[in-house]
Amino acid sequence: MISRTVKFIENPPPYAKKEAKELQNQDETTQQLVELELEHEENRSMEEGEINERIEVNPCEDDEYELSNSQIQTSQHRRSERKTKGIPPERFAFFANPERIKEPKSWNDVLKMENPYEKQKWIESTKEEMKSLQKNETWKLVTPPSGKKVIGCRWTFKAKYDSKGNIERYKARLVAQGFSQKFGTDYDETFAPVVTYTTIRTFLAAAAYKNLNVTHVDIKTAFLHGNLEDEVYMSQPEGYIEAGQEQKVCKLNKAIYGLKQAARAWHLKIGESLIKYGFEQSKADPCLFKFANNGNPMYIIVYVDDLLIAGKDEDIRKIIKELEEEYELKNLGEVNFT
């Protein structure tokens, strides 16, 4: 055997600092590691066709002759003893489901789909979107005026899943290519206020203090209700180009998703509606509206397309009924924070 570099220190007497039992355990551990290392060296030498003479060397029985931790023990990273370590929450488990469908990226992808069931579902979702746009009188077909820019549009597709990972619905949305809009030509102001968390906390605190119920209402396709102040022309959507009117374009009467001013137009629209119903817009936060009905206070927070309504049950039902005459609502019931 070829000896490793070893430093023998003979001056200090052996067992000067350690118990005999501790050194015996250390000797046994060191001896085992040395034997394993020798066996490894022997196997490697035999594979390479080399023959080396080995001389057994006993480790020095001294406390200063110590192998480093990296030689005695295999370095290991700290491991968590938690049983849930590395296990994702159950509500995210379905994201790893290999059966999740592939969502089309464009109208052409829908037409090229091999699965007839999914293809039909996506086409039906575009029909539903077009029906909503036509019902809302979002545009009218006109001959494109000279010198006016016509922006494009595209279909976006998204599969909606429930908490168990099953497909709940196929959703299609027509989106304008607002990135091609030019400031001063087809849009000016784009700012739309967003409610602050301080306002929400104050709103909930006031509702709790005055013993008011809080209801959550979602307004469907909210951005499609905003009125446009600018002239915006958009090409006809793929798959729904009117026969015999291929050269015409859509002159937008109302906002559509993707426009730079869509959020602002919607906020102005919902603000006008609430003021018409007798509410007063807060000067501290433009997303907060308040109303006093025979001494019964009522508050509404506008958070994009969601409304938080605080008041007595009778007053809440009344305002929801008034809103339903103008918008398509989804009553989500009492507010929860899960």
UniProtKB/TrEMBL annotation:
<feature type="domain" description="Reverse transcriptase Ty1/copia-type">
    <location>
        <begin position="136"/>
        <end position="336"/>
    </location>
</feature>
<dbReference type="Pfam" id="PF07727">
    <property type="entry name" value="RVT_2"/>
</dbReference>
<dbReference type="InterPro" id="IPR043502">
    <property type="entry name" value="DNA/RNA_pol_sf"/>
</dbReference>
<feature type="region of interest" description="Disordered">
    <location>
        <begin position="66"/>
        <end position="86"/>
    </location>
</feature>
<protein>
    <submittedName>
        <fullName>Retrovirus-related Pol polyprotein from transposon TNT 1-94</fullName>
    </submittedName>
</protein>
<dbReference type="InterPro" id="IPR013103">
    <property type="entry name" value="RVT_2"/>
</dbReference>
<dbReference type="GO" id="GO:0071897">
    <property type="term" value="P:DNA biosynthetic process"/>
</dbReference>
